[in-house]
Specification:
The protein is mainly α. Helices cover 74% and strands 0% of the residues.
């Protein structure tokens, strides 16, 4: 998880700094994760011949819900062991992860849907 969090933090670093003040750094990190999963899901959609918009947003939403579900399970285990809850479980975390998946999925969808690739021209006389 540490490796993915580092990737999400790098992606979130490209977002406007005002977002940290507006929604908080944790939510910005969730948006960064959503951007990552939205792009990955959209590319998978293109490769499999599926709608990249649905695949990208879908994977980002599933990732957000799965992360919050994992946090919930970790909290339950900690409470059962007599320890404090290590994570907060918030609907908005999952929401911002899903929301982060929209822009990259939309871009990949637009390129796949409207982009025209020029046919390959052989320089070998073929």
């Amino acid at each position: 998880m540490g490796f993915l969090n580092a990737i999400f933090a790098k992606i979130a670093g490209f977002l406007p700094a005002a977002l940290n003040n507006l929604i908080g750094p944790d939510k910005v990190l969730h948006i960064g994760g959503g951007i990552f999963f939205g792009f990955v899901g959209a590319i998978i959609g293109v490769v499999l011949g599926l709608n990249p918009l649905i695949c990208g947003i879908g994977l980002a939403v599933v990732a957000g819900v799965a992360k919050e579900g994992l946090d919930y399970v970790k909290n339950q285990r900690a409470v059962a062991a007599g320890l404090p809850k290590p994570h907060g479980v918030e609907f908005l975390d999952a929401f911002y992860t899903g929301l982060g998946g929209v822009p990259p999925a939309l871009v990949v969808w637009a390129i796949a849907h409207y982009g025209k690739v020029a046919p390959m021209v052989s320089t070998f006389g073929g």
